[in-house]
Automatic annotation (TrEMBL):
<dbReference type="GO" id="GO:0046872">
    <property type="term" value="F:metal ion binding"/>
</dbReference>
<keyword id="KW-0479">Metal-binding</keyword>
<dbReference type="Pfam" id="PF13378">
    <property type="entry name" value="MR_MLE_C"/>
</dbReference>
<feature type="domain" description="Mandelate racemase/muconate lactonizing enzyme C-terminal">
    <location>
        <begin position="128"/>
        <end position="225"/>
    </location>
</feature>
<protein>
    <submittedName>
        <fullName>O-succinylbenzoate synthase</fullName>
    </submittedName>
</protein>
<dbReference type="GO" id="GO:0009063">
    <property type="term" value="P:amino acid catabolic process"/>
</dbReference>
<dbReference type="InterPro" id="IPR018110">
    <property type="entry name" value="Mandel_Rmase/mucon_lact_enz_CS"/>
</dbReference>
<dbReference type="InterPro" id="IPR029017">
    <property type="entry name" value="Enolase-like_N"/>
</dbReference>
<dbReference type="InterPro" id="IPR013342">
    <property type="entry name" value="Mandelate_racemase_C"/>
</dbReference>
<dbReference type="InterPro" id="IPR036849">
    <property type="entry name" value="Enolase-like_C_sf"/>
</dbReference>
<dbReference type="InterPro" id="IPR029065">
    <property type="entry name" value="Enolase_C-like"/>
</dbReference>
<dbReference type="GO" id="GO:0016854">
    <property type="term" value="F:racemase and epimerase activity"/>
</dbReference>
């Protein structure tokens, strides 16, 4: 078996505001396996500034993985516990190689185009007029669940949410907010109470990760359900996962396979969560369509009825062309073709 990798820069159509600054480009890595006339593709969606594997030796690690591909998936997954996005790329590539078509990882009604996956419409940070415009567009496009990134100007964001609620009730539009750790522990509870008055569904990561006691206290007392996101990053060990869930007891956890060790790492979190009655959903983390496709197909097979966070495919000008499309608030696998030209030109 031959393995190779290449880096690729995804260009945003318009700069996207996050709590980690405004993103213009997103770096990613593709992994290709070849055996006889078969190929397998995977994406190692390293997220600079967010991933636990944002390390200077990342590329040399990928090179090492390619040179040791004969060790097989299980051994390589174990050997790369410190590199969750490489674990995920390997899972995808081995599965892709084993399948009849390299992009059909999990045959299902989703891949057949018969069923879509409900997703949240994502509203990026920006000034209030821009956020308001995005909300109107999402509602117009048929989303019934909207996720807003907040934490820039809380008073104005509250006004905006209240305005949406004056036109749309909780049963019309589910509103989720993502604070990406913007609140300080001493102000967080007040903010949660004010947000809860607007009948929101949940808030992601109200305070920064790594403050387990403060987060546990918020989760116990909050009137608004709390979802952990960044909190899960960098926790690879199963006992440590269980300890976090038991200590914090959040209402939900959010699984980003590129950041938490792929299908296997995410499955460990889901099993731990379900034991404790904790809910969960899956989101992409700005992967190209190669990674998004893998996440979406896997997610469909989990049969979780909640809206997932898989609406990130259309953000880039130079994405790998794929059959994935968002319509009426769902992600669909259409009969459009994959275009492998970019992948082939990368000399993987
Ligand atoms: O949740 C979604 O709808 C998409 C995922 C998303 O917003 C995201 C994407 C990349 C990095 C961080 C985040 C985030 O949830 O903050």
């Amino acid at each position: 078996m031959k393995a190779s990798y290449a880096s690729y820069l995804l260009d945003f159509k318009r700069p996207s505001g996050t709590s980690r600054g405004v993103l213009h480009q997103k770096e990613t890595f593709f992994l290709k396996l070849e055996e006889g006339d078969k190929v397998g593709y995977g994406e190692c969606g390293l997220f600079r500034g967010l991933s636990a594997d944002d390390r200077t030796d990342y590329e040399s690690r990928l090179q090492w993985v390619c040179e040791h591909i004969h060790l097989g998936l299980e051994a390589l997954w174990e050997a790369n516990r410190a590199y969750p996005s490489i674990q995920f790329g390997l899972e995808q590539a081995f599965l892709s190689l084993a399948r009849e078509s390299p992009f059909v990882l999990f045959p299902s009604a989703f891949v057949n185009g018969e069923a879509g996956i409900p997703i949240n419409g994502l509203v990026w940070m920006g000034d209030i007029a821009f956020m308001e415009k995005q909300i109107a567009e999402k509602i117009e496009a048929g989303f019934s669940c909207i996720k807003l990134k907040i934490g820039v100007d809380f008073e104005k964001e509250l006004d905006l949410l209240a305005k949406v609620r004056r036109s749309f009730s909780k049963s019309d539009i589910e509103l989720r907010v993502d604070a990406n750790g913007a609140f300080t522990p001493d102000l967080a509870m007040d903010n949660l109470k004010r947000l809860a008055e607007l009948d929101l569904h949940s808030i992601e990561q109200p305070i920064k990760q790594g403050q387990w006691d403060a987060m546990a206290h918020l989760c116990a007392e909050t009137p608004l359900p709390i979802a952990l996101d960044e909190e899960l990053i960098g926790i690879g060990d199963v006992t440590e996962k269980q300890k976090l869930l038991q200590t914090i007891q959040p209402h939900y956890i959010i699984l980003k396979p590129s950041l938490i060790g792929g299908f296997k790492g995410s499955t460990e979190w889901i099993q731990g969560a379900e034991k404790l009655g904790i809910g969960w959903w899956v989101t992409s983390a700005l992967e190209s369509n190669v990674g998004l496709n893998a996440i979406a197909q896997w997610t469909f097979g989990l049969h979780n009825p909640m809206p997932q966070g898989l609406g990130t495919g259309a953000l880039f000008t130079n994405n790998i062309q794929a059959p994935l499309a968002v319509e009426k608030g769902k992600l669909w696998y259409t009969d459009l073709m994959w275009n492998r030209k970019i992948l082939d030109n990368l000399c993987l």
